[in-house]
Design goal:
Layout (H helix, E strand, L loop, with lengths): L1 E6 L2 E3 L5 E9 L6 E7 L6 E7 L4 E3 L7 E5 L5 E6 L8 E9 L2 E4 L3 E5 L2
Parallel strand pairs: 2-11
Antiparallel strand pairs: 1-3, 3-8, 4-5, 4-9, 5-6, 7-8, 9-10, 9-11
């Protein structure tokens, strides 16, 4: 089992930046892929970015060129660097980890982009 805890959310003005962190504990050595998802009020949860153990990344079109996903050297950390934030990026951001047929979700961290 893997437990995920997100941090780094908050209120930022349009055009600003935030860096989200995700700490994995438990059997984090078995993780094959980590990702960030977000859910805005009244909308379905959507993929933001994923990073496979192979190093292959995948980004939603809406965040390409603005967001960057990365893993820490210890591999039990994942980050999402978010630049040029816009009001439409406002959502609860969730960390996800996958291994085999299983996955785990964090509790989410709120990101609000507003002037």
């Amino acid at each position: 089992q893997v437990k995920l805890v997100e941090s780094g959310g908050g209120l930022v003005q349009p055009g600003g930046s935030l860096r989200l962190s995700c700490a994995a504990s438990g059997s984090s050595f078995s993780i094959n892929i980590m990702g960030w998802y977000r859910q805005a009020p009244g909308k379905q949860r959507e993929l933001v970015a994923t990073l496979a153990k192979s190093g292959i990344t995948n980004y939603a079109d809406s965040v390409k060129g603005r967001f960057t996903i990365s893993r820490g050297n210890a591999k039990n950390m994942a980050y999402l660097q978010m630049n040029s934030l816009q009001p439409e990026d406002t959502a609860v951001y969730y960390c996800n980890a996958g291994w085999g047929a299983y996955s785990s979700w964090g509790q989410g961290t709120q990101v609000t982009v507003s002037s």
